[in-house]
Amino acid sequence: MSQQVKNKDIAISRENSDWIRRFEVRNGRPPRVLHIGNIANNAYNNSKLMNQAGLVSDVICYDYFHIMGCPEWEDADFEVGEIDHYNPDWRQVDLNSFERPDWFIQGDILSCIEVLRSRWEEPPRNPSIRRELRFSLIAKKTFFRFPFYTNTDWFSSTISFLRDGTLGRWFLSFFSFFRYRVLGRLLSFISFLRYRVIGGFLSFVSFLCYRVIGGFLSFVSFLSYTLSPSRYASFISRKYRSFLMNKFSRRFAKEFPSRVDKVTSKDYQDYLYILPHWKSILKHYDFIIGYSTDGILPMFCEVPFFAFEHGTLRDIPDQKDRSGRLTSLAYRLAKHVFVTNFDCLEKAKILAPRRYSLINHPFDEDAAFNIEGVEELRTRLLSDLNCEFLFFHPTRQDWTEGNPMADKKNDIFLEAFIALREAGVEVGVVCCNWGRDVAATRELLGSKGCDPYVAWVEPMPLLPFQRMCLASDVMADQFKLGAFGGITFKAMAVGCPIITYLDEEMLLRQYPQCPPVLNCATVEDIIAAVRSLLDQPEERRKLSADSRSWMKQYHSKTKTLDIQIDQFRLAVS
Fold it and tell me: What is the spatial distance between Cα 219 and Cα 213, in angstroms, rounded to a whole number?
């Protein structure tokens, strides 16, 4: 193991720490990283770690406002309540003093680009744009507040009274009378003169303009059109677009000769208008990471980039549409691909042979500390649900036949829960109201008389989520994929025992040791695991301690950063 040193707030390898210092000495600044896209806050968490490690890291989260892609979801302690999940208005939420960092840029695409452009260009193209965006709503979809409001209502009302009251009526009526009687007559006389004398003269001038000057100007206009640089610029622009299209069409055909679908002009015509804007900001960064399908943008801009996979490779590259073709090409042309889901490993081998690394989901395992209100929450839930053993099942409800998203197999857990309850085991469960099959889950539990033992809550931001984990005996995740995602490692970080299904053979390709979870694939497995925990309470405490230890050893922020910075070093060496 390489020696680790503390660089800023995070311990990274000595090689990477020394490289950052050498880069800063050579360039007069730290390395700059731009993260494009922010599904599930992966970019936000990743950028936060990089900033703490001594890099300069920005996130551009354009045209995406889902609540789980906002920094508030990760770092603010609040109740979801009636918040619109797809268009949250953070002004209406008590965030307990949390404020967004200025390196996270969210809004419509052109506004986000303008913010970043103003950040790096000297002098700024528009010095006010950053302040305006910081304190205004972008399409009414960002969190920004109005701190500069002042109480001017009294002033406005006074003016309105004077204007509409006695003074206003007298003054305006007198002025209107005077204007009509005196000034009006004068102006009418002037209008007459202007029409008869000046108008006649102007008509003669117009004739000259039309016959002589107009003819000359038309000739000049002809020359201007013929010799216009803009005309040739437009011609060159069209030629460039044609060249770009042909280039990527040929490249796709070369990289994927067996595919029957081909890249056409329709695949990237929607990108052409925005590419010059993207190029204007990408040039200010040393390293660019495109998340999910967002590697397409730096690919079309023809700048080096990294691709960050978070479930993207499962299905999208195989689609016979624009998204499938361009995503496949982006991952093929990326300098390196970071894979966060080990069930996508085989697809990464095909798309980016020898240019991929398995990487943890970016996460600060030390972030959760001093979470208050745990005991009060547990006491209330045990009482409300009439139970002695509490499950937390936050996983998306997707499990019925015919559901294209049925990848969680919640029914295995639900049937085990029903069986335990029918056997007299006093279990309760907190479920999240999330997924296509929420109604089916409610119907199944209700048909078995389990409604009194189930609490439904909205999906939770990180801090309330971890509070619920600490208040529960076990967290139940998915039972189909064999992989684990965000909710599992976030629960393990606070020492919550996990019941889920993991493909251990596949998992050991990424980690030297499997996570200490209760690995269950069937209803019977879950029942046996729960009975074991009830009979041996010390086993739960051991699982809790082992979970925290495993996270620190195998899923640390240090490892996540070092893998990425290693590739940055190789890219510039």
Answer: 10
d(CA 286, CA 305): 9
Query: Are 56 and 188 part of one and the same domain?
Result: no
- What is the domain extent for residue 40? 18-149
DSSP code of 160?
Answer: H
CA distance 554 to 515: 9
Give the helix/strand (H/E) hosting 336. strand 336-339
Q: Does residue 156 share a domain with residue 135?
A: no
Q: Are residues 45 and 190 in the same domain?
A: no
The verdict on residue 501 lying in a domain is: yes
Query: Per the omega criterion (within 30 degrees of 0), is the bond before 229 cis?
Result: no
* pLDDT tens digits, one per residue of 514-530: 999 999 999 999 999 99
Question: CA torsion sign, 267 to 268 to 270 to 271?
Answer: positive
The reply to whether 139 and 156 lie within a common domain is no
Residue 307 forms part of a structural domain: no
> What does pLDDT average to over the chain?
83
pTM score: 0.75
* Four-residue CA torsion sign, 21, 23, 25, 28: negative
Identify whether residues 191 and 135 lie together within a single domain.
Answer: no
CA distance 139 to 63: 10
Task: Report how many domains make up the chain.
Answer: 3
Is 133 within the bounds of a domain?
yes
Least confident of 13-27, 148-162, 536-550: 148-162
- Which residue among 149, 172, 189 closes a domain? 149
- In the sheet with 287-291, reading across from the earlier edge strand, the strands are 104-107, 56-62, 32-36, 287-291, 306-309, 336-339, 356-358
Asked if residue 331 lies in contact with residue 307, where contact means CB atoms within 8 angstroms, the answer is yes
Domain termination residue (choose one: 88, 114, 149)? 149
For residue 186, the one-letter residue type is L
Q: Is 40 exposed, middle or buried (0-12, 13-18, 19+ CB in 10 A)?
A: buried
Q: 201 vs 189, 193, 195, 209, 217, CA distance in Å?
A: 18, 11, 10, 12, 21
CATH of the domain at 395: 3.40.50.2000
Give 344: exposed, middle or buried? Use CB within 10 Å, 0-12, 13-18, 19+: buried
Cα–Cα nearest to 42, from 289, 333, 268, 257: 289
510 and 541 part of one domain: yes
Residue 265: what pLDDT? 83
Q: Please tell me which residue, 265 or 513, carries the higher pLDDT value.
A: 513
Q: In which band, very low, low, confident or very high, does the pLDDT at 197 lie, cut at 50, 70 and 90?
A: low
Confirm whether 528 is domain-assigned: yes
| Nearest Cα to Cα of residue 314 among 293, 298, 333 | 293
